[in-house]
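Section handout 9: paired folding examples.
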Amino acid sequence: QPAWDWSSGRRRLLIEAAPATNLCTYSRGAFSNGTVWARAGMSVSDGAAIGPDGLSQTASMITITGSSAYMMRWINVTAGQTVTAAQWVKGPAGKKVRVWWWNAGTASVTATMKYVTLTGGWQRLTNQSATVSTSGTVALRIDGGDESNLDTWVVGDTLYFDNTQAEVGSSSTSDIVCPGSATVIRTADDVRLSAAALAQITGAGGCTIALRATSKTGGWILVGAVNKTILADYGMLRSDGATAVWFGTPLGGTAFGIAFTAGGGGRRVSIGGGSVQAAATSALLDLADETDIRIGARQDGIGAVSQLFVDELVVWPFAGSDAGLQSQARAWA
């Protein structure tokens, strides 16, 4: 399922182009489980506070009781992989939290320590990566260290932890919660219009769809149909068949807009408010032949992570004019 980000302001829908697995079992609400999570210099109360979604009582309260406090657990890794950790944390402004891979256990990794300075609100420390040289178990450690390896936590400090994530790859993806002993896989995300909805909006008058979004971690934007026919890549048009592979312009954090229409003047598209272009005869979009439409980011074919924040997706039950397409094919104001 696509996930909302929990930042202030507008809530943006995050679409993941590729599946991912959280290797950290008991990742939320189990920090007090000493069999799973080793710790020192702290006491833990699970389910003690509202988590980063602002709704659920999922956060664990961490009270510092001694020096050199830490939380640590073992993760199974495989030689040759890159693994990346992410951690939700909230604590006193100015304190620091460090997440790092430690050469303990039977495996060996190469990694640098990464930390964040706390602001008093929920923060997610992401993209703490390590290269695995031998298979086995390796320690994922959370402590109060800073860039000089000094401990910023003191007795009496109170922090809150929520979901911990460890996954294969060099970038952190959206939250995957492992509540128990089994790892959890998040499948690639689709934003779909149901067959019933398409039947309503694809009458003689056609339809118009506008998408406004922001690329989060690079990659390419795809508007595609169920048979994988590509409708529009950012910056280009394609009308390939079901098995062809095409790539658009890497976005790298770009905000953009796409609007396209079918019926009432043929298939037309505007990208970024640019000139309206007619689709090829072989059809960028043939709503009559499709059971649904999928809109999202995709991988570049070699495993790179691609993520997309959707700011707005609007469907109108009529074919828009050229001027209408250009006005809707813009980034979020």
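Moving on to protein 2 of 2.
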Amino acid sequence: GFTHTNLAGEFTLTNLPTGESVPVMCTGSGRVGYARNIRVTGGKTTTFRGWMPTLDADFPITAEAPAPIDLASTGSTKGFRFEAPPSAFVFDGGVVTGTVNVQFKVYDPTGESMRKAYPGVFEMSDDGGKSMTRSTTAVFLRVIQGANELSLTADASVIVDAPIPQSLAGTAADASALLTYDVQGGAWKSVGVASRVEKSGASVYRFAVNSLSWFNVGEVLSQPMCVVGCVVDQRDAGMADVPVQILSADSSRFSTVVMTGDAGCFETTLPRGANVNVKSLDDVALSAQTVNFTVPYDAGGAACASIPPVHENAPDFVVMLGWSGDAG
């Protein structure tokens, strides 16, 4: 289905298939798209929360120009570059001419904005199963013409330089895995290798791709461990439909946001041996505890390792005050 948000940024989708993992993709003019798979329970309302920050840039270019499109950025995204061949973009099967807009967002994986906007989890799926990933840089790419989102022609590819954050430049490898996000499958897929390039005043990862989407450059880590946990209030009662942030507290540089179920509990996968901070992001909580947890290499015979309960101080009730008439 398709719908729009209201003035409060809320939307409702109905008649979704129950018991299945349903991909939800949010897009908006001038904002980064956000995607996540949700599992729908029959007869219940499933809450979905997404973060859609504004784009770093929106460059108008002429698509039919004989020279390649070559955009370079300065400032906070210094080193970013986007190069595409002429007549590279299509909409509804036809090659696009005229002016189009190239939009992008570059993310520092050590920053809060990426942890909120990053679709899915830091996990790669391939024929051999699932592996956790550690991101060094990530970029979101989109090309539009008016209200139409464009794609690349079958034989076209674009070259991208994604800046490496200065804090990670000293440890970034000469070559790293290149991943792209599969919205329908709700997982990151390996699509090649990105090579480190030194430019004037910036270190970047350079890669060529034949699609426009989310791209992540990083390292493939160990096989993940299943973990479970719960968010509880001051009475130790489970808190349903609460977003929970799991953020690396060591050098593994990853995070994810999961939702608690009806009983106030959640399940996800994390790298074995990783040290993480787990915290409720409940909007109405008066305060929330941060739990530090080291993911074990073995769950001791259990299906999943257990994170200690995350406590939050939830209000007992909310009082709405109002008045009418003259203040005097």
